[in-house]
Amino acid sequence: MMVLEYSGVEAQERLFARAMTLLPPQGEILDLGCGLGHLISYLDEKQLPYANYHGIDVSSRMIDEASKRYSGRNEVSFERRDVLEDSLPPARYDTGYILSVLGYPIGDNPMRSMMAIIENAFSACRTGIVFSHLATGRKEGLKFTTLPEELAVRCERELGAKVEIDDNGEDFTYLIALRH
Question: Do strands 93-98 and 125-134 pair parallel, antiparallel, or not at all (unpaired)?
Answer without folding.
Answer: parallel
